[in-house]
Amino acid sequence: MKQAAEGTEQDTSKPVASIGRRWGMVVDLDRCTGCQACVVACHAENNIALNLEDVVLQQRAINWIRIERYWEGEYPNVKARFLPMFCQHCNNAPCEPVCPVYATYHNQEGLNVQVYNRCIGTRYCANNCPYHARFFNFWERDLDDTHREYLNPEVTVRTKGIMEKCTFCVQRIRRSEWERRQADEELQEGDVQPACVQACPTDTLVFGNLEDENSRVAQLAENKRHYRVMENLGTDTNVIYLKKVDPHASETAPAHAGTAADSGGNSA
Amino acid sequence: MHERPRLTPIQINRDLLRSVLETPLVFYVLLLLLMGLVGLGVIAATLMVSYGLGVTGLNHPVFWGFFIINFVFWVGISHAGTMISAILRLSAAEWRRPVVRAAEVMTVFSLLTAALFVVLHTGRPWRTLYWAFPYDFVRGIWPDVRSPLVWDPSAIFTYLTGSILFVYAALIPDLALARDQTTGWRRAVYGVLCLGWRGNARQWKLLNATGLLLSALILPVFVSVHSIVSWDFGMSLVPGWHVHIFAPYFVVGAVLSGVAAVIALMAVMRSLFRLHDYIRPEHFDMIGRLLIVVALAWAYFYFIDVIFALLSNEEAEYQVMKLRLSPPYLYLFLLMITCNVFLPVPIWMFRKFRRNIGIMVWTAIVVNIGMWLERFLIIIPTLQRRHPDAFAWGDYSASLVEITLVIFSFANVALLLLLFSKIFPVIPIWEEKEGHIWKREFRIGKLRLPAIVRE
Amino acid sequence: MLFVGGVAGFAMRLGSGLEDRGPWGYYAAVFGFLFTVGQAAPMVSFVPRLARARWHGPLTRASQVVAVAGLLNVLLFLPLLWLVPSNAERVTVWFNWPWGAPHFFDTIFVLMLVVNGFAFLWVQAIPDLAALRVQSGGTHRLARLLSGSFIGTPKQWKVQRIGLAVLGGCYVMNFIFVQSLISLDYVMTLVPGWKSSMFPAFYSINGLLAATATTIVVLALIRRFYGLQRYITVDQFWNIAKIMLALNLAWAYHWWADFLTTWYGRVPRETVVTLGMRSFGENTWLFVIAFICCFVLPLLILMWNPWRKSVAGPTVVAVLSLIGIFIQRIIDYVPTYLVTQDPLDHELHEAIAIPWPGLPDVLIIVGGLAGAIFLITWAVKALGPLSNWEMQECMLLRRNEKFLNAEVPYVIKPQ
Lengths: 268, 455, 415
Prior knowledge:
The complex is a heterotrimer. By secondary structure, chain A is an alpha+beta fold.
């Protein structure tokens, strides 16, 4: 009790008193090849509904993580730029205060959590998310027996009419925590890896505790290439991107990816 | 003056209770028609609840569609009642008398319809009760008061309660009259409803005090309701919605559509119940004058909204406005601005047109089409292109279910109004009589001029 | 005398040059205030007339006469033209539109408004001037000149009526338009990243509030110094106090809508300006005073009918509101003119505190106000404190008649 009170006093800028852990991710765009392994891994891990043709045509596909592709430059010097985009777990999240039922809130580990059971599906959070990271279940899932075999038992299958989004694989965090606790130990660096991080072949995605100065993710976040997407909205995200190193940057005109990347990019 | 016939109290009683005591054929025809449409709506809603929101045209970037447009529209219409009755009562405008009740009742019914759409548009309507009525407090789970969607039901239910009280208080003397004019079970029902009204001096005094007090108290609610509806949009970070001016702008728009709807309602009542002696061209004239001011104020706010989006050096907002101002939305935009300002305002400028009921009805309908489009243009294009460099752009076309439910909303309000007119007198009889007593004519030179007591 | 002092202050400021905008903040605030107050008041005479309320008779002159302060406003406006950068250096409502904007066009619009105000005053005063001409046997030169050949034929009355209606309608629209424009060109677009679409609307509301407040103050003064207690009754104050209360509430509402949208949105570019500079931040104490003057005290006073139905209550509220609006102008103009950041920047990085006024500033404030008061007093002297014909008309259309046992006033409403 006392500790919690002290926590709030020390750091009033954060919505919730932290417990010395703030999960975050660093995305090194210089390494991303746009291979979509993370997307597939995420689908498998989190029981995401299959994006069949008709659903995609209805513009209702669900992708907790997706690779945004931008074209840069003029033909013939066109370059593809990739930007993995998923829930940014903002410390100052636009989606949180607008939910009338606390179905989405900030927990003490810096995660932006979605409570499926609580959600009534106003879809206000999705409107207010500038990253388009939130998805709505328009249909009930039609699962046959074979399909049930593929489901991850640790993740809820979402019903129709509720929102869902990237959780930083919270089930993995909880499992690691539990395993460590069995051995009476603290959670260690490298214990937790979300599915996308695990699947990434180029080590683009790095996950860890941003509050721990020695963690790899915290050190990478200090890299001078770092920026956050749409920083001008003041969302204070827990996902940090590292700019692509482009030796010929000055020769080509800035294009779409540049706009997305700049923190105050909109005035460009 | 032939325009303002002098009527005896008995004649007033007979004319105004006619809709309650007699049931013409046209009533049944209308009833059947409207009930059919409402039935269709119920089927559509059932489909939607059982299959999920997939049956609508909503999709990934466009999460809000016809339902929210309709919600805002009906909340807007509901502003007519208070505007007409509270503000005009407080400012002692005489011409309000025959219109007040119809407007107030329309407030109640359109608010109910609007509230229905909020519930319908959620993904799990059966759970939406969680937040409108936080009954789950045993587990310590409360709604989040930071959310505009919690402000919404609070405002709507406050307004609804206030409006119902408002209607009911003004109904009491008329119910007593209906009690005296009917027999059998109807007499008993009216007798219970009129709360033992005898019409003595003390009761009248209390009634007057209630009317004034409720008028004054409901005004802040009236402003807050549509402000809060506008903040559903204004509080978000969506470019094109996060606009500071939204609150007063929405309120003015609501008054515009609501008061215009009152015109249509008045005309329907006039011809349906043969109330030509009570709802006269002069009333349309006065409403027309009021509407000129409201429409111009709306145009001012709209102009500011557009100009600010265009002049901002914020790319996102600029792009959204550009989408709203380029085809195909350009055509809708032009239609809307024509419907709301360019067509009706010049018409209302002329006394001759203001006193022509046919023309007034058409302008009223046109304005409401315009106002519906206005909400459409605020909600849909904005959601389609929320941020220029991100990530999912999309389009939206309403499904049959949504269209049915929009038609349902109109039929629903009309049906409720029709049923109301069958049970209660639609024109406040006592107010009408009061107006007659206070009226006097004076001669100045050769002119005979109407005059009224100043309270 | 004070006015001369003001001119001296102006000269002192001029000595420091026009290149640097910063020191001119207080000067601009005085202009903003007088422009709001002086140009707004005539609207009060139009609105009750439109609503066909029959208590506005004594009000019209008191409100319209304030329009003469417009003369001073034009003079005050001119130096601002040099202070404010052109379109090319910031984002304005003019986009990249024609040459001369904003300076040339703003001047035109301000002149238009002032001329419109004078025309409104003049058309309204014609019958009175004609009466004065007749009364003085044609010796009053000003009256002879201004009243023309008005002898009160039905046609002349009709033309005068239509003139009043048209000029009044134009004036209201003109006022709101020019207020919005000036507020944008001379305040908002000078600050990088400040974009609140409430701003022009808030200015218009401020204008309406100022209009009512000024009218009440002038009315109270006229009543006191010309001994017109019989003509300007509590009735006028009572009625206009209701409008006053409504406008005080509208003021708070508009502020609140602006504040809430910004505060909830938490977008850095907005919070620095709207919250930091204008409400709770660097200049909290000034804002709180303005808020109390424009909303809290008026609400607490005018809520009670006995206070509403008096001369003192509305007058006190009016004075408070004027003070509040003046402080608002200081909050709006002074820090804005101190901003040195490039207006084309994306956002302002830190809020700016308001410095105390120096000697020249005080002189300018006092001088400006004195100048305006002088002009108004002169006009009241020249045109008379009340509008005779409207008084007579209102009296003609009001009858006291027996109604049951009581004597009650009837108001005649011609079609």
